Prior knowledge:
The structure holds two protein chains of two kinds.
Chain A: H1 3-15, H2 24-31, E1 34-39, E2 44-46, E3 54-60, E4 62-67, E5 75-81, E6 85-86, E7 100-103, E8 107-113, H3 114-123, H4 125-150
Antiparallel strand pairs in A: 1-8, 2-7, 3-6, 3-8, 4-5, 4-7
Helix pairs in contact in A: 1-2, 3-4
Chain B: E1 16-27, E2 30-37, E3 51-56, E4 60-65, E5 76-81, H1 85-90, E6 98-105, E7 118-124, H2 128-140, E8 148-154, H3 163-171, E9 176-181, E10 184-185, E11 191-192, H4 196-200, E12 209-214, H5 217-230, E13 237-240, E14 256-257, E15 260-261, H6 262-265, E16 268-270, H7 275-278
Parallel strand pairs in B: 7-8, 7-12, 8-9, 9-11, 12-13
Antiparallel strand pairs in B: 1-2, 1-6, 2-5, 3-4, 3-6, 13-16, 14-15
Amino acid sequence: MTMVQIEGLDKLLREHPFFDGMDDAYRELVSGCAANEVFQAGAYIYKEGQAADKFYLIRHGRVALEVHVPGKSPIIVDTLKAGDLMGWSWLVPPYRASFDARALELTRLLSLDAACLRGKMEEDPALGYDLHKRFTPVMASRLAAARHQLIDMYGHPGD
Amino acid sequence: MALAAVTRSISPMVPRPFRVEKVVRDVSDTFTLHLRPEEGRRAFPFAPGQFNMLYLFGVGEVPISISGDPGEPDRLIHTIRSVGTVTARMAALGKGDVVGVRGPFGSAWPVEAAEGSDVVIVAGGVGLAPLRPAIYHIITNRGKYGRLRILYGARTPRDILFRGQLERWSSRLDTFVDVTVDRASGDWHGNVGVVTRLIAHGGFDPDNTVAMVCGPEIMMRFTLQALADRGVASDRTHVSMERNMKCAVGFCGHCQYGGNFVCRDGPVFRFDRIEDIFAVREF
């Protein structure tokens, strides 16, 4: 990866809300693990059970997280859009994706290499703590939202 | 016409006969009645957010919000979800049948006070129906408002109310519409997730936003929290409450809600005025 590419990626990371307020030195470290990726509508970004070797920041487009049902249309459990973080299985052993991720439209993402990041987090626990502090609120918010989805809040809550 | 000037001209306890002109089956459990007064084409002025008591003679009476356009007062439109004895029987009404109408009653969405502000409309399920008159009013007077965001949540794609209308509003360059569902299969290309997630994506100025929220109380609870998290103050947030209304004029006390009667002081409340009791369980 050239220096120009790294500088461009650092700018993209700086502009993404997930990295709001991150120390410049840490963000530059993280940008060394980053890459730009583009997926056409309908393309799978990853599939359930695959190695969770990246996480993603959506820059443009929308992604469906879904569960494959044999012989039937997949069940979409969540959709993510520009500004959202996608994927935290890379933080949790055994580092396997829990859902399929499919682009619903042309989608541009920043991907961050998991092995690269885990290595930097092991070397510098403060970086690891910083990243965990960014992931934890997203995970908690998604868990709460998933629980709200279970209660049929628009129809007959409690039935 | 000033919305505040909307008044009733006959006894509020006497139902007026209206004839069903058209029935629209919206989604599986929800239908819309288009009504015309028996006594002729007299206008039925109302303010967005107000409700009528609809009387199915010999069966019972229920409070139902008006879902039509306040700019077209000669057409009275109600969207009804079949959930009990009266509404289930109403679902069987057809063209030419007669229902009794008392109203309009209650408070209104603050569409005039919201002029100059961004407006965020958040609806869940059939809660879009009481908000539709406010949307009509804002779109008719679009130049008086800032950004308009309509955020709507439904159980599944099949349960999306007023789908064609949401698509038409969405096609306007000055209106942002976002719809989400709890569950969908692979042929759905929209959002999946709770409606509160749409609020987090912003697109409005929290300090200069008026929010109007309607849906089941549990949905409104989480929505109000999401709006507060985004920085929208409770005195700029309005909700439509639902309680067991009988007389509709503040006499009987069935719909007492703290120091308020929902039929008279509501159904639309500025949230800071009920915030304390809203948080009390079983109230």
